[in-house]
Design goal:
Belongs to the YjdM family. This is Zinc ribbon domain-containing protein YjdM. It comes from Clostridium tanneri. It is a single chain. It is built from one helix and eleven strands, in the order βββαββββββββ. It is mostly beta strands. The model has no long low-confidence stretch (mean pLDDT 87).
């Protein structure tokens, strides 16, 4: 038997999957299951080293000494970074650090303040 849900509009049992949506052939109603959309939101969120979700404008603290590529200087543990911006990519935090300037950091090396 089919494990697909019945149509929430007309309660038809003849639903089918079309990509990420479910479709009812009788009333042409389309919908997505809420569980799938919640999983997608969790995958897109950026989390710090402790698992807290980061947002634009948050303040974070560096949890490990970080070498600055192309320089002999180091960003010390405990350095506070204010007003971060989240971006796509490997280094997913864009910020400005006092004394260093514009930097990109990985979220796994910071914790939310």
């Amino acid at each position: 038997m089919s494990s697909l849900p019945n149509c929430p509009k007309c309660n038809s049992e003849y639903t089918y999957e079309d990509g990420s949506l479910f479709v009812c052939p009788e009333c042409a109603h389309e919908w997505a299951l809420k569980l799938e959309t919640e999983d997608n939101e969790d995958n897109n969120s950026i989390k710090d080293a402790n698992g807290n979700i980061l947002n634009d404008g948050d303040s974070v603290t560096v949890i490990k000494d970080l070498k600055v590529k192309g320089s002999s200087s180091v960003i010390k543990i405990g350095t506070k970074v204010k007003n971060i911006r989240l971006v796509d990519g490997d280094h997913n935090i864009d910020c400005k650090i006092d004394g260093f300037g514009a930097m990109k950091l990985k979220s796994e090396f910071v914790k939310k303040v």
